[in-house]
UniProtKB/TrEMBL annotation:
<dbReference type="InterPro" id="IPR014825">
    <property type="entry name" value="DNA_alkylation"/>
</dbReference>
<protein>
    <submittedName>
        <fullName>DNA-3-methylpurine glycosylase</fullName>
    </submittedName>
</protein>
<dbReference type="Pfam" id="PF08713">
    <property type="entry name" value="DNA_alkylation"/>
</dbReference>
<dbReference type="InterPro" id="IPR016024">
    <property type="entry name" value="ARM-type_fold"/>
</dbReference>
Length: 244
């Protein structure tokens, strides 16, 4: 039987994180960090285990968040060469993203840039959401730039991070009420060459359709005139709730 995802976040994972950081932060005590994680995760489910690991990591990193972010950036390792590998290779970075999510909001620009780097190895779709809530306009400026990235993982983050009803995440009422900023953001991605990105666009459209079916009906009418298989694939998958 395959190992449940929550059990990937254990003492061994703590060692993996700390071992990656140690060359860039000599003061990190790997054993103490791993001990704190091991004591804290017992009996917890996935999200809580990841939070314990992030919280323990913050304790063991420099008090200066700017220094911590620089060290973490250097510790991320190589980027994924394909659209796969987020969990098979980059899973161990989930606590790092959670650290940014929980402890970095006073350093908006630094944290958003770090999210863009993390997502090239794992995902930052949850980490960016507090920043969207904190300053939607500023966050959208970052996300629009990400949408134009050459890296498919970063383009996906631009969309997935702003999904109004992202599963297993706190909803974004600002985009539930007014989805236009996100619909504008995905407009250039309607023929994106990456299936990974297209799936995220389709999921966002499906999210919006639950609250604004008429608006998505207008989008379908508009995009249906585009003779491109990628666009038609997005429309098919993005209107699955409307077709039920």
């Amino acid at each position: 039987m395959a190992k449940k995802l929550k059990y990937w976040f254990d003492r061994d994972c703590a060692f993996k994180i700390a071992t990656a950081i140690k060359p860039h932060f000599e003061a990190l005590n790997i054993e103490e960090y791993a001990d704190m994680v091991e004591k804290g995760i017992d009996g917890l489910e996935l999200k809580d285990r990841v939070f314990v690991m992030a919280q323990a990591l913050r304790v063991h990193m420099p008090r200066d968040y700017k220094k911590t972010s620089q060290i973490l950036h250097k510790s991320l390792g190589p980027t994924l060469e394909t659209e796969e590998g987020m969990f098979s290779k980059g899973y161990w970075l989930m606590p790092v993203a959670r650290l940014v999510e929980e402890f970095g909001t006073d350093y908006f620009d630094i944290s958003m840039d770090l999210c863009a780097e993390i997502t090239k190895r794992n995902t930052s779709e949850y980490a960016v959401r507090p920043y969207i809530e904190l300053d939607p306009e500023k966050a959208l400026d970052f996300m629009k730039n990400w949408a134009g990235s050459e890296n498919a993982h970063v383009r996906r983050l631009a969309v997935e991070g702003g999904r109004p009803r992202l599963p297993w995440a706190k909803h974004l009422p600002i985009f539930i009420e007014d989805p236009e900023p996100m619909l504008d953001l995905v407009e250039p991605l309607k023929t994106d060459p990456s299936r990974y990105v297209r799936k995220s666009v389709a999921n966002l459209i499906n999210d919006v359709s639950k609250d604004h079916p008429e608006r998505i009906g207008e989008l379908v009418k508009d995009w249906s005139t585009i003779d491109h298989p990628y666009t038609q694939w997005i429309l098919k998958h993005g209107t699955r709730t409307l077709r039920k």
